[in-house]
Every structure is written in C-alpha cells, then in structure tokens.
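Sequence only, no structure available. Ideas?
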Amino acid sequence: MYAEFGDLVACHRVFSSICEPDLVCQTAMVSACAKKGDVGFARKLFDEMSWKDPIAWNAMISGYVQCGQSREALSLFNLMQREGVKVNEVSMVSVLSACAHLGALDQGRWAHVYIERNKLRMTLDTGNSPL
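Reply:
I predicted one. Tokens follow.
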C-alpha cells in the first residue's frame, strides 16, 4: 500500500519491523521498491533472499524493465536460467519487453523460439510484445 502511493520510506519502515519476513512479503517488497525506482534496494533484498521462486525472479526482472534497466533485466534472466529456475510466460513478457527497449532483435527472436520450443502459452501480452 505504501509503495503504491510512492511512500518508500514508510514501506521500508514497515518491512524492517517484520522479524522474519516470508517469501511472499520479501517478493512484495522487491516488486514495490523496483517498480518505484529503488532498484538498488530491491536487488539487495532479492540477493539476500534465502530462497527465490519464479515469482521473486520475475518481480526483480520486471522491476528492472519498468525502470528502463533492460540490460540488467536480461542479465538477471540469464542468471535465472543458469540457476535452473522455471521460466514461465511472465518471465518471457519481461524478456520481450527488455529486448524491445534495447532494440535487440536477435534476442527477441531467440525469446520467441524459446516460447515455442517450451510450449509456453501465448497470451495477449507475449503474443503482442513489440520487437
């Protein structure tokens, strides 16, 4: 709620008052901070998470894309793959958006081939991402 209104100070205060934040809480904080431009803190939280599910990875990657840091988004996506984390449609929407922002046509084509090869369900978002 605080992050939605741009009050990252209150958001940080509430988060730091939680003794043992769970995965959902940590992911929500990563997402909120990244989307509001505090990607440095979001990445710090992300890196400190003891376990990251695909939702946490997608939150950080999407945050990078939304803040115009598409190279970082693609770099983190590559790490996600190397770590063996399951890539899903949400991951690919961010990858395609990052490719579009960078004008990375070859990487965008690779992403479309990956979607087809892995039989990811083409949604309106993935099917219409500009390259």
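Helices lie at 8-16, 23-35, 39-48, 54-66, 70-82, 89-102, 105-117, 124-127.
Hope that gets you unstuck.
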